[in-house]
Amino acid sequence: MWRWLRSALQSLRGSPAAPPYGGGGRPPAAMERAVVRCVPSEPKLSLRFVLPDGSARHMQRDQAEPLGRVLARIATNAAKGHGKAGKKSKKARAEGVAEGEAAVPAVRLFSRDGAAVAEEVPNAAAWQDGAVLHIGDARYRVERNPPALTELRLPRSLLAGFPVCPKVSAEFAAPQHCLFRWFREQRPACGGDAAGEAWVETAAAERVFTPSNALVGLRLKLRCTPGDGEQRYGPALEVESSGPVEAGPGACTFDARHLYTKKVCGHGSVRAVSYNILADTYAQTEFSRTVLYPYCAPYALEIDYRQNLLKKELAGYSADLICLQEVDKSVFVDSLAPALDAFGLEGLFRIKEKQHEGLATFYRRDKFSLLSQHDIAFSEALLSEPLHKELCEQLAKYPLVQEKVLQRSSVLQVSVLQSTTDPSRKLCVANTHLYWHPKGGNIRLIQIAVAMSHIKHVACDLYPRIPVIFCGDFNSTPSSGTYSFISSGGIAEDHEDWLSNGEEERCSMSLSHPFKLLSACGEPAYTNYVGGFHGCLDYIFIDRNALEVEQVIPLPSHEEITTHQALPSVSHPSDHIALICDLKWK
Questions:
Q1: pTM to 2 decimals?
Q2: How many CB atoms lie within 10 A of CB 155?
Q3: How far is CA 462 from the centre of its chain?
Q4: Is 2 inside any structural domain?
Q5: Helix (H) or strand (E) segment spanning residue 431
Q6: Does 235 share its domain with 308?
Q7: What are the residue boundaries of the 2',5'-phosphodiesterase 12-like N-terminal domain, all occurrences included (predicted)?
């Protein structure tokens, strides 16, 4: 709110003249602005204006208060302002006003049609957009809830050839209706300082700007004017980059994949992406730098660098659905959500309760609307939800396994989406990241059993017979019990994964689910490639009864993956590889 107040004050001091208005007497040729912020959920409204003597006024008043009290207060403030000048006008002396005092000016409020607003009208109803406030001979046009920027921020790292996506937060405005102007720093002339303007405007006027190689070494500046889509604009804000544009890494592992995804799919198809993007909380540890990824240049593990690559990679897939794992909360809020919003995608986030990272699901706004969310934490759902009662009772027979399951913070994100062009078409989109330990196959089986029961509740009970798309990092190879359970619909009591961590943690149960699920991208040789391991752990499972695969976007070649030995690298932002496929309804 305070950023809004500063913007309002800025607009009052440097505002353009308003058009004349015929309310309550002959109007002046131009009017000052009286900016009102009135939000129904808040008890008070704020009123900002500049008195004729040049002093700025900011008032906070109850929304239910009668208008007359505010007008009386404004009159008192105006009189004090005149009195402080310490000089009597000829008119004041003629009327016998004492030295240091001033006559209280008449203060009235007139509606847009010129009628005086009654003093008993509550503030919330009185201060309407387009009304005119009279303070003596001065006139003020009321602007109620004008567009205002509350935050404007550029990324800390800028790379040539990679999109710069500002974080734009606004009140009474939307980023898609804002005006953007990009500037570059003036390059110093040879042998001396640059002459003339320090900034030169570029030809770019879009929300996202991709600097060319010619801008390497120069800083950027953005000027944003907030708009609400109804031809109302607020005061502009400017922000300068903290550092210059730097050279990009050259060819990236995803460049060739973008050749298949230049355009968004038609309305009869859905492009889905599943991607573990490597949380910064894991990439920035000493263990990661020295043991897990010693082959990766330290700067390429920095979150600012990796975010440049991630945003370009994800934007270039032109996806309708994106399911991400290992998403830092700050990365979602400050980087991915603003960036993908600029490319038409709405984001949902679910954090793991004990950690700083979680899951994110993005969907294309012009293709889907969100009907409902049904996220759960596996451990909490297992204990509290009746539909898992039988599984919980079976698990209680194996205390060691039960303890491990309940200690895990793994979550399941479930979103029900509806087609914007065909309301009969709905999707249940699930996203998860299962327990990571190589010897945790039994834990993953319990987690996936909870997940399938919950998805069944959503896709069969709440929304009968809607198709399921289940994405994630399942930490399970195609030979695992988890993969077998998902794809076949059941698992035997004697499957070897029940014994994955030795005899003392053996548990035996028979599990089943009703879905016919297919791995849309098949079983790649690997989706995770690090120095000490490579294997297929990530999948996009689809309801084979309702959906079919149109195309699978090829994974990067082995040569591309191993150019810098393994992942992540200067040309690839994660230790996993994104899965991408185009689906269509049968």
A1: 0.88
A2: 23
A3: 28
A4: no
A5: strand 426-433
A6: no
A7: 146-246
